[in-house]
Amino acid sequence: MRHHLRHRLPSPSRVLDTPGLRWLRPWLDHPALWGLQRRRVAMGFAVGMFSGLMPGPTQMLTAGVLALLLRVNLPVALLTTLYTNPFTYLPLYYLAYRYGCLLLGQDTGSTMSLSSLSQPGHWRVHEVLAWLEGLGWPLLVGVLALGLTLALAGYALVAVSWRCAVGRAWRKRKESRGADGTYPAE
């Protein structure tokens, strides 16, 4: 697993030598932020899943700050936020809203619908803000709850996958041994 990740993630020195990031070197030059241990990568994935639901431009900033505070794999945390994009953002926020309604025990039909807005290509800022205000607490609670749920599921998925990959490699290595317990000469 480390082999695959090591070749896909940027090296710390390459990132830290980037002209725009040199001023962050004192904070980013910690080995824990670049380590490829199962728990650090799984937590980095969880941080990215949680941060991916934050509003627009704050996703990577949130993931970076949480990765720094929790000392988890920074590149994995940042890359994982990319699961949200213009195609997935609205369905995820709708799911978060429904999740929030469920958690708060509210009827989902009592709030404003998307059809209350004018034509999608002609949305006015005040119409969108009024629509979002109508969503209120269910959306806020739902985004946080869905973020935590996705983070827990992501952590479990990465931890179990990593463990299975290590077990498979261990069995393969064990099977390649000879009857006397030594590896055959090549």
TrEMBL record:
Transmembrane stretches, start-end: 139-165
Entry-linked Pfam families: DUF2062
Domain of life according to the entry: Bacteria
rRNA processing as UniProt keyword: no
The UniProt record lists the keyword Transmembrane helix: yes
Keywords from the UniProt entry: Membrane, Transmembrane, Transmembrane helix
Name by which UniProt lists this protein: DUF2062 domain-containing protein
